[in-house]
Amino acid sequence: MKKLAIVLTVVFLSAVVVMPAHSALKKVAQTGLQFLKVDFGARPAAMGGAFMMVGNDASAMFYNPAGIAKMQSGFDFFAGNVSWIAGIQYYATGLVKDLGNWGSVGVSAIYCDYGDDIAGTRVAANEKGYEETGSVNVGAYTVGLTYARKLTNKFTVGGQIKYAQEHLGESLLAVGGSSVQNKVSGIAYDFGTIFYPGFKSFRVGMSIRNFSNQFKYQQYAFQLPLTFTLGFAMDVLDLIGEHRNTLLLAVDAIHPRDYTERINVGGEYVFNNLVAVRAGYKYNYDEEGLCAGLGVQHTFAGVGIRLDYAYSDFGVFSTVNRFSVGVSF
């Protein structure tokens, strides 16, 4: 119990240190490829994004790559859809294979659909001062390779290397000049750890996401949304002894490159290993806040099926809905 108290104190003080005052300077407009910050899974989104110490399937690759080493099946598949604001659609998928004592390896992908009704214009010497150039073709995607392994029965590490690309149409360098493709691409890295200090299911760890060199549109260079996260989670029903249901609580303290510090808090109650009810809250976000969702899971002929839904309040932008499916075998 003393060991748990020490760990909880450290985590709490860390959260307090990074908890921002809302009047603090916000480091906005510092990074690009903002889609890398979106919650792609319905389960993590319903828990307010507090998922770094929770994920133990293919969806963990989008939060903490160390999580895939905790999967309890030979293969795990994940696919999710996010109905984002302004009609934007995000699609994410991943597949993980357990290699036994060699660890776990996975592949992941994200595709961004910004629609085909974005009107393009450019300066012109006419009455309007501009002329239409047709629809602008924009899009983005990433593909990644992840590896994780349990170094001991208490400590797990994982890493991911991913290729990211974004295309924002084409433009003229000058009136009557040649056109250029507004495209950037490059390599980014994620890294994470999970540590079980030895008290029940309590775990603590950290992750670093989107570490990379600068990307560059013509002469304008920018960073990816580098994010450092410290988190912990525990099934609090472990405190009462043997139990059939679970009540998981998780907290993530987040230090992003392009904003002040944030806190994600979430919970998940699973009844009879069948139905899950989730809720969470995101602190110090401009629009995001309350999150909630439901999930069902069952095993048919040795194949586990997971279906999840998440609702997120997005302030003036109304709501964001997410659906995801998982298969383990």
Describe the structure.
It is a single chain. The protein is mainly β and 329 residues long. It has one domain: Porin, CATH 2.40.160. 7% of the residues lie in helices and 53% in strands. The chain is built from two helices and 18 strands. The strands form three sheets. It has a 14-stranded antiparallel β-barrel with strand order 1-2-3-6-7-8-9-12-13-14-15-16-17-18. It has a two-stranded antiparallel sheet with strand order 4-5. The longest helix is centred in the N-terminal third of the chain and has 17 residues, at 2-18. The radius of gyration is 21 Å and the shape is elongated. It starts with a helix and ends with a strand. Residues 1-23 have low confidence and may be disordered.
Counting DSSP E segments of at least 2 residues, the number of strands comes to 18
Count of helix runs: 2
CATH-derived architecture: Beta Barrel
Tally the structural domains: 1
SSE order in H/E notation?
HHEEEEEEEEEEEEEEEEEE
Task: Tell me the CATH superfamily.
Answer: Outer membrane protein transport protein (OMPP1/FadL/TodX)
Q: Strand pairing plus helix content: what structural class?
A: mainly beta
How far is the N terminus from the C terminus?
Answer: 37 Å
Tell me the fraction of residues in β-strands, as a range.
Answer: over 45%
Helix content: under 10%
Q: For the record, what CATH class applies?
A: Mainly Beta
Characterize the overall form: elongated
CATH fold call? Porin
Mean pLDDT: 87
CA-based gyration radius: 21 Å
Largest β sheet strand count, sense and barrel closure: 14 strands, antiparallel, barrel
pLDDT < 50 runs, ≥5 residues: 1-23
Strand order of the largest sheet: 1-2-3-6-7-8-9-12-13-14-15-16-17-18
